[in-house]
């Protein structure tokens, strides 16, 4: 048993990366239509039902090729890379409270798993098809658990995902109603059960910022707060009222290094929530427009063009950016970063980019207080 160094240790999104899990597109399926999710195919004049079951092999292969490219780049930078265990996502699920025709994939470990210092936390998840996604990472968690006696492991309470956990009419609200409701932060998940996806959290040392969203409700944030604050963290709910379909913070508000956050010009932070940053001399830098518009995103992609800003830090001065996103690369260069461009657009198909497709297990560094 290793006791000399910690294996599980990551306090923020930017310290030097030492060990990471990169997702896989193997066996990926279409995301099913369910109360918490209404996937839509792009570019149709007449809507038609979203496909179900396994995604076409060539889509999965193209994404896998790019994910393998990310593995090689990280390894060339001295990072240890692990991959999820293979699983069959075409298997339907039936629990006492819900049924779903197939599961999704393990392209985005970020959505499910989070390292908070020396703890690994498995999120509750918010959609039926992703309920068992943690299984792809269990053998790794056991490996870390066996090798790192100082690591702690927590599993958040699984919600029922029954029909009444969701607000069905959310999906048909007209834009005017969304506009009226935008400061109420009520989305498709109700407030009765604890619900959160790991990717709604941004880690900045002692301070964890959690976005209230379609995938994280207020009960979820309360659970995270009560779980983390006794361990010395401070948890801050954050909101981006102009994002009518918010899910996962990492295409909206991305810390790049201590004192610097990349922000989305179409999703400003809720008025007042910027104060903690400004009072501590943090700077916000506005991201340039993505290279492709929402209409040119991959056909089955359910995320917006803003996955363009879903960058992955190798260290406080080295950062991986999607190959075609030149304006963002130039901005980051001008801020002193060494930029590593990497083709990743086929992974967009699965709703995320470089940050989503990874889960950092170890970065160097300790818990710092960036907001004293
Ligand atoms: N919902 C975000 C958007 O459309 C994408 C977030 C992707 N992040 C992730 N961890 N899967 O802009």
TrEMBL record:
<feature type="region of interest" description="Disordered">
    <location>
        <begin position="29"/>
        <end position="58"/>
    </location>
</feature>
<feature type="active site">
    <location>
        <position position="197"/>
    </location>
</feature>
<comment type="similarity">
    <text>Belongs to the amidinotransferase family.</text>
</comment>
<dbReference type="GO" id="GO:0006601">
    <property type="term" value="P:creatine biosynthetic process"/>
</dbReference>
<feature type="active site" description="Amidino-cysteine intermediate">
    <location>
        <position position="356"/>
    </location>
</feature>
<dbReference type="InterPro" id="IPR033195">
    <property type="entry name" value="AmidinoTrfase"/>
</dbReference>
<dbReference type="GO" id="GO:0015068">
    <property type="term" value="F:glycine amidinotransferase activity"/>
</dbReference>
<keyword id="KW-0808">Transferase</keyword>
<feature type="compositionally biased region" description="Basic and acidic residues">
    <location>
        <begin position="34"/>
        <end position="45"/>
    </location>
</feature>
<feature type="active site">
    <location>
        <position position="248"/>
    </location>
</feature>
<protein>
    <submittedName>
        <fullName>Glycine amidinotransferase</fullName>
    </submittedName>
</protein>
């Amino acid at each position: 048993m290793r006791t000399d160094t910690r294996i599980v240790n990551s306090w923020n999104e930017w310290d030097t990366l030492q060990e990471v899990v990169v997702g896989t597109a193997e066996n990926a399926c279409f995301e099913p239509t369910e109360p918490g999710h209404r996937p839509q195919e792009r570019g149709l004049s007449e809507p038609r039902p979203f496909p179900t079951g396994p995604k076409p092999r060539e889509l999965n292969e193209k994404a896998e090729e790019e994910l393998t490219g990310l593995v090689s780049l990280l390894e060339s930078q001295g990072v240890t890379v692990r991959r999820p265990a293979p699983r069959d996502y075409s298997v339907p699920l039936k629990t006492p409270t819900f049924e779903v025709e197939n599961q999704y994939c393990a392209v985005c470990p970020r959505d499910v798993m989070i390292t908070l210092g020396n703890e690994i936390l498995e999120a509750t998840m918010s959609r039926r098809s992703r309920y068992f996604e943690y299984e792809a990472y269990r053998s790794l968690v056991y490996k870390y658990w066996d090798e790192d006696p100082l690591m702690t492991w927590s599993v958040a309470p699984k919600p029922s995902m029954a029909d009444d956990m969701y607000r069905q009419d959310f999906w048909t609200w007209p834009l005017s109603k969304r506009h009226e409701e935008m400061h109420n932060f009520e989305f498709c998940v109700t407030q009765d059960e604890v619900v959160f996806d790991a990717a709604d959290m941004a880690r900045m040392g002692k301070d964890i910022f959690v976005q209230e969203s379609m995938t994280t409700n207020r009960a979820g944030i309360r659970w995270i707060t009560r779980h983390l604050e006794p361990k010395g963290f401070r948890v801050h709910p954050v909101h981006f009222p102009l994002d009518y379909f918010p899910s996962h913070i990492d295409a909206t508000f991305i810390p790049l290094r201590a004192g610097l956050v990349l922000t989305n010009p179409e999703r400003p932070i809720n008025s007042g929530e910027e104060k903690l940053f400004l009072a501590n001399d943090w700077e916000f830098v506005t991201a340039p427009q993505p290279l492709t518009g929402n209409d040119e995103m991959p056909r089955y992609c359910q995320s917006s063009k803003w996955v363009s800003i879903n960058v992955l830090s190798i260290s406080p001065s080295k950062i991986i950016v999607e190959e075609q996103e030149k304006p963002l690369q130039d901005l980051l260069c001008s801020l002193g970063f060494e930029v590593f461009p990497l083709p990743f657009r086929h992974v967009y198909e699965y709703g995320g980019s470089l940050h989503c497709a990874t889960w950092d297990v170890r970065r160097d560094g300790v818990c710092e207080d960036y907001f004293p």
